[in-house]
């Protein structure tokens, strides 16, 4: 189990335990019917990090309160999620030869786990690689599994592996995560960090060019503002932010400012709105708090090795730490502030949903995928019509997939698939 998911799940559980003031929103039959007609996609599902956990099965209904998970097949059905991009996430490690080899092997293992999940459940899931797959798979009563990579670290040793990932189904790629790597500068986690490359490195530029050739969507989330500017200038296809928020609502380095939101829209891109509380509001987390929290996380090891009793103990410790430092908990209303602001600035044709489920996403009142209908209702309440809401739920994502693939190099695609 990766540390990112462990941290996020335990912290979110503790947050909800401390603050039970959730927005009460009654979902109408109109909202449910609209959602049922739409194709509902989320572009950042970190759930593959759970696939290696002993006893955890995607086909079982799990409890968010019990194990911190937010996505499984029964809850996807209940929440109306038709699928999305399932993530090959690799935490950033050393950039020496051994670190890069370990990252290569880890990424391939995670890719294999995603494909194995699909193969083991052919009645419930299907691999998706083109825009048209989503409607077909939904009509068949199954869930779409598009594949993305968060952090190109697994490609650092050998960037030519991208063609192998493409052949295996990869259709979205982000270059960097919480710290700088060979490809690009990171936006940082809590505070903006000084860049190492001034944005993209030459290696990163070449990776974007190759992604364009193959029709792989380039993802800016987690990268620095300078990387955004350079991606827009370099990429011949529109780009995505698979899970990001609005800087002008909360000035966190992970979020995108209004000026760049307008540039994104002008270039045909899409921003998928993230629900990770630390990116939505100022939680009041001080350096001292983060230091103590980090120490706690390191003591946990991996959630895959933790018993249920140990998880409860860990959650209690985090809850106590949050209380000690009076940490503010983001709510569904905080999430909506970002979503509605981005819709106003970028336009409904350039916005989607990328909650970061099972990777830190979720706020009070929006804890797992079963709450997705609340977003539909909130958009109706805000005055958006069915065409606009359907676009946000998945239509804009599908349009972007189609546009990016239409601009691919047919010869490069053919060579990768042979």
TrEMBL record:
Entry keyword annotation includes DNA repair: no
Signal peptide segment: 1-22
Coiled coil regions in record: none
A GO biological-process term: proteolysis
Family annotation (Pfam families): Peptidase_M19
Keywords recorded for this protein, A-Z: Signal
Domain of life: Bacteria
CDD domains: rDP_like
GO MF, any single term: metallodipeptidase activity
Name of the protein this chain belongs to: Membrane dipeptidase
Species the sequence originates in: Pseudoxanthomonas spadix (strain BD-a59)
Taxonomic classification: Bacteria, Pseudomonadati, Pseudomonadota, Gammaproteobacteria, Lysobacterales
